[in-house]
Amino acid sequence: MAQQYEYLNITIREDIGGRSSRKLRKSGLIPGNFYYKGEENLNVSVEKNNFLKSLRAGHRIFEVELKGSNQYVMVKEIQYHPVTDDIIHIDLMRVRRDEKMTISVQLILEGDPAGVKEGGVMMQNLTAIEISCLPADVPDNITVDVSDLELQGNLNVEDIIVPEELEILTSGEISVVSCQLPKEEVEEEPEEDVE
After folding, report:
1. How far is residue 89's CA from residue 30's CA, in Å, rounded to a whole number?
2. What angle do CA 158, 163, 166 make, to 5 degrees?
3. What is the pTM of this model?
4. How far apart are CA 36 and CA 96, in angstroms?
5. With contact defined as beta carbons under 8 Å apart, do 5 and 59 qualify?
6. Strand pairing category for 42-47 and 101-110
7. Which residue, 162, 143, 160, 140, is CA-closest to 2?
8. What is residue 162's three-state secondary structure?
9. Coil, strand, or helix at residue 194?
């Protein structure tokens, strides 16, 4: 499960403000902030194409070189333009390889539920869960086998099996997926006039 981290080329930027941010975006860079608890925030810029390619590949933790040393960062927040959906700003948070971190991980459902074969409809109620682990142990996703999900059945977070190095922080009582009978449309009978 340990993975190699994608290298992200970030540069400290001196100019801040709306005008300089627009200039950066026009030149193919994304303005951002780099922070770590107890340290001063840094204004940085990231190469847009490199970042988008890494995001599409599912990377969330990156290796960066900053002030002469290699560090690890995770994407904490991405701001999108409300009309064009372009990324206009990112927040990167430094993580330490020897400190556990909290991260949201996507759930992938696998298998054909027994209840669906009996005519039921599967409904996924949760698409991601919060976990705590070391940065080296962060999985790309967590798979949930739904093959044994029966009609009128339910799988909760507590039913998810993960390796011992991962700790699930999401409440165990939350439903991940259920299999229900399809709802039938009931035709209302017209009311008869009472005389």
Report:
1. 6
2. 75
3. 0.61
4. 10
5. yes
6. unpaired
7. 140
8. coil
9. coil
The answer, yes or no, to whether residue 191 has pLDDT greater than 70, is no
CA distances from 163 to 24, 96, 99, 121, 125 (A): 42, 21, 18, 30, 23
Residues making up the chain, counted from first to last: 195
Residue type, 20: S
**Does residue 72 surpass a pLDDT of 70?**
yes
Amino acid identity for residue 65 in this structure? E
Residue 188 predicted with pLDDT over 60: no
For residue 175, what is the enclosing H or E element?
A: strand 175-180
Closest CA to 89 of 54, 56, 63, 51: 51
The torsion angle over the Cα atoms of residues 25, 48, 37 and 94, rounded to 10 degrees, is: -160
For 91-149, how does the pLDDT look when each residue is reduced to its tens digit (9 = 90+)?
888 888 778 888 888 899 999 998 888 888 999 999 999 999 887 788 878 999 999 99
DSSP state of 99: S
